[in-house]
Write a structure and sequence with these properties.
single chain; 171 residues; alpha+beta; 5 strands
């Protein structure tokens, strides 16, 4: 009996450690993260994307628009600093915009405006487009890995308890 009781504790601890480690798994693979230049800031890239061509970056933000073109998809993103777990922070802290170039088709119904994304990729140049009436330079990132974050559900506004007297009848 003692042998069985003491054998359960290590199994429970190993299971707990495994579950904690799985919950902390990164959204971008370690291989892709190893290729990222962590010293490069987004404002530097925005100032002169061509100067950093070929450098690995990790960026995040909010999808503005997804355009499907023959053979590739362009995802326009409002940049946001990455916080805990490499998740984009609030939209209000943005320093600008960038474009993610993805080979093949990406469904714009999934990558719709407002969704949070984190992307690891290489800087492949710039794309000049009109933003309103201003010519805006978008750094273009060629995707190696991309993670779309689950949508946040709005907080419940109804009370979590109900109090009543009598019998409820519904039709």
């Amino acid at each position: 009996m003692d042998r069985m009781r003491y054998g359960v504790f290590p199994v429970c601890m190993a299971t707990l450690v495994f579950m904690v480690m799985a919950a902390c798994a990164p959204v971008i693979s370690q291989k892709a993260l190893d290729e990222v230049d962590g010293s490069l800031r987004f404002v530097e890239i925005l100032a002169d994307p061509d100067a950093y061509r070929g450098r690995g970056v990790l960026l995040g933000g909010y999808v503005i628009e997804t355009q499907n073109l023959p053979g590739k998809t362009l995802i326009m993103v409002l940049q946001s600093p990455l916080g805990y777990g490499k998740e984009p922070a609030a939209e209000t802290s943005s320093k600008g915009r960038f474009i993610v170039s993805v080979a093949g088709f990406i469904d714009p119904a999934i990558y719709r405006p407002g969704r949070k994304v984190t992307v690891a990729g290489t800087i492949s140049g710039k794309d000049e487009r009109l933003l309103g009436e201003v010519e805006y330079i978008y750094p273009v990132i060629t995707k190696k890995e991309i993670h779309i974050w689950p949508e946040e559900r709005p907080a419940r506004t109804e009370p979590r308890f109900h109090f009543g007297v009598g019998i409820g009848i519904g039709f």
